[in-house]
Amino acid sequence: MNGIEKSNRRVEMSAALSDAVYDYEKAYTGVIKGDPEKVTKDVLNDAGIHKDSYKIVDTMYDPDSGVAAIAVKDTMTGETYIAYAGTNMSADGHKDPIVDLAIALNDTLYLKEKNKPALDFYDRVEASGHYISTTTGHSYGEFQAGRTAMERQVPS
User: Fold this and answer.
1) Which of 2, 50, 55, 117 is deepest in the core (most CB within 10 A)?
2) Hey, which residues does 67 pair with through a beta bridge?
3) Tell me: the pLDDT tens digits for 43-73?
4) How far are the Cα atoms of 1, 9, 68, 141, 151 from residue 88, in angstroms, in the given order?
5) CB 101: neighbour CB atoms within 10 A?
6) How confident is the model at residue 139 (pLDDT cuts 50, 70, 90)?
């Protein structure tokens, strides 16, 4: 796989994972029925990502902060991507909108505290031996991905 193909693959996987992590969070919190990992795989399959081209290596949901994330190893590139769920009121209720407001108000200390579960997840995945090349997400999830990428020096 050349550099352009690898870059295109990162974009394809990032987009699909940004959607899949929302349904993972909804399944984890019971908003939609089903095993969270199977629900995630169904979303990736619907996006055209072949089931043999990736492996879900870790997942997390922090009930205190509402942060949800999945880590997926791309078997075509050998890279691992982390996707964070964005604002998801059906799964978290008021937790995500409160953080959205803190982002708007630029409450840096509060935001640093709320980003801790995202950083801890990144560190856990990296410590298990995975090369993380990309962090991604939509909305609040992209905030988590961007802040994590900035602190851990990886692309977002």
Assistant:
1) 117
2) 62
3) 999 999 999 999 999 999 988 778 899 999 9
4) 36, 26, 10, 10, 24
5) 11
6) confident
